[in-house]
Amino acid sequence: MRGWAKDQGVNGSMITFLADTRGEFTEALGMFMIDHPGPKEALGNRRCKRFVLICEDGIVKNVEVSEAPDDPAGDNEPDGPITAKTRVENVLELLSSTNGDGAVKSSIKADQ
Predict the structure, then answer these.
(1) pLDDT digits (tens, 9 = 90+) for 33-79
(2) What pTM was estimated for this model as a whole?
């Protein structure tokens, strides 16, 4: 992760890259792709969905997931509407839309 952070130019910034090598965090969040065989068949182990968590003081304020029935990894169309949910432009917009109490507007429905 340090190498990736260095490559992206974020070493020493407020951004922290974290690894989930055993999938414990991904499992706890329910973010494994479970209904689509493609990624597991191609890569050999469970894969996580493409998602973003916006957290403040250890509290998740927003969850964005890029997935569709025919695109469980959320990356079939890199510039398309599914992937757009987790692209940096959307995340920056979400961060700028926080209100005074730290709440962030979400595109996730309460029943998801």
Answers:
(1) 876 666 666 766 788 888 999 888 889 999 999 988 888 888 888 88
(2) 0.70
Percent residues over pLDDT 70 in the chain: 78
Three-state DSSP at 59 gives strand
Give pLDDT, residue 26.
92
Query: Of 50, 90, 104, 57, whose CA–CA distance to 73 is shortest?
Result: 50
Strand partners, 51: 65
Q: Are 104 and 98 in contact (CB under 8 A)?
A: yes
Q: In the structure encoding, which two tokens stand for residue 81, read together?
A: 């509407």
39 backbone dihedrals φ, ψ, rounded to 5°: -60, -40
Domain boundaries, the chain: 49-98
Contact between 39 and 74 under an 8 Å Cβ cutoff? The reply is: no
Backbone angles phi, psi at 60, to 5 degrees: -70, 120
- Of 67, 64, 66, 68, nearest to 106 by C-alpha is 64
